[in-house]
Structure formats: structure tokens, C-alpha cells
Amino acid sequence: MLLHLRNVLTGDQVAHFRRRLGEAGWTDGRITAGHQSAKAKDNSQLPGNDPVARELGDLLLEVLGRNSEFFASALPRRIFPPLFNRYQGGQSFGFHVDNAVRYDHEQRPPQPIRTDVSATLFLSEPDEYDGGELIIEDTYGNQQVKLPAGDMVLYPSTSLHRVAPVTRGVRTASFFWVQSLVRDDAQRRLLLELDLSIRQLGADLPDHPSLVQLTGVYHNLLRRWTDV
After folding, report:
1. Using only C-alpha atoms, what is the Rg of the chain?
2. Rounded Cα gap, residues 10 and 106, in angstroms
3. What is the pTM of this model?
4. When you count CB atoms within 10 A of the terminal residue's CB, does the N or C end of the chain come out lower?
5. How many other CB atoms are there within 10 angstroms of residue 105's CB atom?
6. Backbone angles phi, psi at 212, to 5 degrees
């Protein structure tokens, strides 16, 4: 399930993120790559313990905590602290699959997080750079994603994906992973579709007796499928 979440950050928030990232100390992006991914990865990144990365990561998590669309889509149990990367001058990231488990080293001892959902939050406008599309392979073929600054894409971490070379300008983004309450992507999709249908029915016919029944179906499916 590939989902486009619009306006996760406001314009003012995007400007703040970009200003702070412009003051940060970037390093080789291979610091978080696995053995195979490191061979394909060419970008810059902020270390997870960088003060700017921590500040902006905490702010992003605070914003996501108020975003009902994100919660309905990802059903997060745990979120890996957001990271930040940058591509320019022909840099790219070849096809790869994200590591199945990441360790949050901000916790003591470091805590494992299963990567069910991958997220990319775009912080550069599409017309500020050429290339840089996030290309995701799914059952319908390759999906090319290049979103406005402040928008986010969610997709299964099992997906083969890459970032096309950036041939002009700079592509800056945040990325992170979610361990979902429901690890199966097809089950998460069904729950999201049911949730959206219940919301629409509630908006159109707020007193419809089926609302209580359908809400019960949603929670009973979540109870059956949840992984806690």
C-alpha cells in the first residue's frame, strides 16, 4: 500500500526545517546502510545523534502524533527516530530493500524496531531539483514519487526501491520506519479502507445505525490482527 499524505508540515514548518538543516553538519550517508545497501548508496546524511537531527526529529514526531491520517494508515506501535538525507551532484541510491530490523540506539539498551512501513517526507520542492524520484516497485509496476515539500509517502518496507540520480539542485528529505500494530500490509489496507468508509458514512449519515456495527467490525479485526 503506497499512500501520499499531504501537508504533513505547514509551509512555515518546512521553512524552519530547511533553515536548521542548512546549519547542520552533513556526513556520508552510508553510516546507516547495511552491507548490501552501502554498495548502492551515495548521499549525505545527518548522524542520528546530531543535535539538529534530534531537534527536528522530535518536532516531526510531535506533528505526526496529531496527524490522524498517519495513524490510520500506519497504525504505529513504534517509530524509529526520523533521519535526514540530502542528494546533489548526481548522487543516488540504487535498488535495495530496507533492513528488516533497525536498532534505536537512543534507548538503553538499544531497542529493536521491525520495519513494516517506510516513510519519506519531502523537504525540497519538485522544481528545485532534477531527478531524485523515489522509485518503488509494487504489484502495479514502478511507482515514481516526487512530492511537494511538506508531503509524505508511506510504503511497505518490503518493497524494492531506489532514489534516482539528482542531476540539478539539492533534494532534502526526512526518512524513518514504523513498526505497525498490524504487520501485514494487506490487513492494514483493509483496515484503512474500512476506517475511511466509516468516517464518510458518519459525515453523510451521522445517525445511521450501521455506524456502531461497522465500528465494532473495525475494532474486532484490529483485535484479531494486532501484534502487541
Report:
1. 18
2. 28
3. 0.92
4. C
5. 12
6. -65, -40
Query: Cβ contacts of residue 62 below 8 Å, gap of 6+?
Result: none
What whole-number distance in Å separates Cα of residue 208 and Cα of residue 110?
48
Backbone angles phi and psi of 14, in degrees to 5 = -60, -45
DSSP string, 8-71: SS-HHHHHHHHHHHHTS--EEGGGG--HHHHHHEE-EE--TT-HHHHHHHHHHHHHHTT-HHHH
Q: What are phi and psi of 79, to 5 degrees?
A: -125, 125
**Residue 31: pLDDT band by 50, 70, 90 thresholds?**
low
* Number of Cβ atoms within 10 Å of the Cβ of 121: 25
Residue 70 DSSP class? H
CA neighbours closer than 13 Å in the CB half-sphere of residue 70: 24
Q: Which among 178, 183, 142, 137 has a CA at the least distance from the CA of 160?
A: 137
- Reduced to 3 states, what is the DSSP secondary structure of residue 221? helix
Whole-number pLDDT of residue 4: 97
The residues pairing with 168 across neighbouring beta strands, listed in sequence order, are 130
Helices (H) and strands (E) in the chain, counts: 6, 16
Q: What DSSP state is assigned to residue 32?
A: G
Task: Please name the residue that has the C-alpha cell 531539483.
Answer: 129
